[in-house]
């Protein structure tokens, strides 16, 4: 096991390696104590037997070992996932207690145990449900003493989420089960909220075409475990979801890995804390694609970005949440995650539907052997990296292609395709004229074949005299 402590700027303060011969170490949780020490709970696999056992390690504030205890309750499958300070001293840990015998699966229990300050077991309670895989993932101290434990097990061959309230001695006070139809939920982190508790994790749904999508999710309940809301946070398809965390301001952090084709990228999402009082209702007013047209080669695929537009002016990505269809599947079709696949040259459209709203996107499929998307042989640039233009005026800009082999520069302005982040502020016509519409800052793009370049643009307010002269010129003679 490798342990590292960083300061607030990410600099290494100390790092330690703890070795246990014959044990593969998988730490699951670290808790800092009031005196600056660290208690780590996890799973150790005995390599030559492939048996699992739980362990807890306590380090001082410099990372030096104070004590290290291993715990075996059954013949196999014992491990710990979370640990917190107990309300009456010592610590409370939760996890899983496995089989009494290797193949029997008779135990298969949620495990909750209390240890003293030296790691000695005060009591341990395995709550069994044979062949269920019942496992506890997270524990928090309840408001009225006792503990709330988030767990998961299989019921009728379907994984479901449970929230169990234990008293100080590990006895069950109440238990709630949460399901969402045929969808799959995986909540791994439990936090306290003003209303009660929030379970944080992921939600996976599958459509009629057996295409699945995974989203960040939060399940909120009151102090008695009664559900308040199930919230899904739509965005790009998620490949993996990490362990979420509560932030000092009462919000949440979700780490994960998003998937775009074969590309995986780390993503971090911050959710703001609930506002005081009754929040203003945010209504969905429409949906729209981020662009009006998509062009791709036959035999290739490309993602789309579908946005939800709300009454408060905010937008959110719901590319993986809508239902999609194609106008002509022989030219191009679209899957349940919003990816368009081109089949043969031609023009068609795709349509998205979500909560009664629809949006269309024109699609052009070009020949597979076209060079339209190939990067240029050379360097593409604009004649400036920044432009300034007045409202109601325009200026010429140029797109230049520098050929390294001949060391020559060619003006390809009329061959380029222009776009603007905010066309209401400024845009570029086909001749390369930069037109200022209203004051503001934005960015323009020039694309040629498979390469593109951009520049920042500031549109400044026209002088008052110029506006008056322009108005006078527009007024007809009497």
UniProtKB/TrEMBL annotation:
The cross-references to InterPro entries, in alphabetical order and at most eight, read: Invasin/intimin_cell_adhesion
User: Would you say which domain of life the source belongs to?
Assistant: Bacteria
Q: Which Gene3D superfamilies match?
A: 2.60.40.1080
This chain belongs to which protein, by name? BIG2 domain-containing protein
Q: What organism is this sequence from?
A: Paenibacillus favisporus
Q: What is the lineage of its organism?
A: Bacteria, Bacillati, Bacillota, Bacilli, Bacillales
């Amino acid at each position: 096991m490798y342990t590292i402590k960083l300061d607030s700027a990410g600099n290494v303060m100390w790092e330690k390696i703890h070795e246990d011969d014959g044990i593969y170490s998988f730490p699951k949780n670290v808790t800092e104590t009031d005196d600056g020490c660290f208690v780590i709970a996890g799973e150790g696999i005995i390599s030559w037997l492939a048996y699992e056992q739980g362990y807890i390690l306590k380090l001082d504030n410099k990372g030096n070992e104070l004590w290290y205890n291993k715990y075996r309750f059954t013949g196999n499958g014992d491990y710990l996932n979370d640990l917190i300070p107990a309300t009456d001293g010592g610590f409370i840990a939760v996890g899983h207690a496995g089989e009494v015998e290797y193949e029997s699966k008779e135990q298969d229990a949620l495990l909750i145990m209390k240890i003293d300050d030296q790691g000695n077991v005060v009591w341990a309670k395995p709550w069994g449900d044979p062949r269920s895989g019942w496992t506890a993932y997270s524990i928090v101290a309840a408001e009225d003493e006792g503990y709330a434990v988030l767990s998961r097990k299989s019921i009728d061959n379907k994984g479901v989420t449970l929230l169990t309230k234990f008293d100080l001695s590990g006895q069950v006070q109440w238990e709630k089960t949460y399901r969402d139809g045929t969808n799959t939920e995986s909540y791994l982190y439990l936090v306290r909220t003003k209303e009660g508790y929030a379970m944080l994790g992921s939600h996976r749904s599958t459509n009629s075409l057996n295409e699945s999508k995974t989203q960040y999710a939060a399940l909120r309940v009151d102090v008695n475990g009664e559900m308040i809301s199930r919230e899904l946070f739509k965005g790009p398809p998620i490949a993996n979801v990490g362990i979420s965390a509560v932030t000092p301001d009462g919000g949440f952090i979700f780490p994960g890995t998003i998937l775009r084709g074969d590309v995986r990228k780390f993503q971090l999402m911050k959710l703001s804390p609930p506002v005081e009082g009754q929040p203003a209702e945010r209504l969905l007013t429409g949906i729209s694609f981020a662009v009006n047209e998509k062009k791709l080669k036959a035999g290739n695929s490309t993602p789309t970005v579908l946005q939800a537009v709300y009454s408060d002016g905010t937008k959110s990505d719901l590319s993986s949440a809508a239902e999609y269809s194609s106008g002509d599947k022989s030219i191009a079709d679209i899957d349940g995650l919003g990816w368009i696949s081109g089949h043969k040259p031609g023009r068609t459209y795709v349509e998205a539907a979500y909560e009664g709203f629809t949006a269309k996107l024109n699609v052009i499929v070009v020949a597979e052997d076209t060079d339209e998307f190939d990067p240029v042989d050379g360097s593409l640039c604009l004649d400036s990296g920044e432009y300034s233009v007045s409202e109601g005026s325009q200026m010429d800009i140029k797109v230049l292609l520098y050929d390294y082999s001949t060391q020559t520069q060619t003006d390809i302005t009329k061959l380029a395709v222009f776009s603007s982040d905010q066309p209401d502020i400024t845009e570029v016509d086909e001749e390369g004229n930069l037109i200022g519409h209203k004051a503001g800052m934005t960015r323009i793009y020039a694309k040629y074949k498979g390469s593109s370049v951009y520049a920042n643009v500031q549109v400044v307010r026209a002088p008052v005299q110029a506006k008056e002269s322009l108005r006078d010129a527009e007024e007809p003679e009497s």
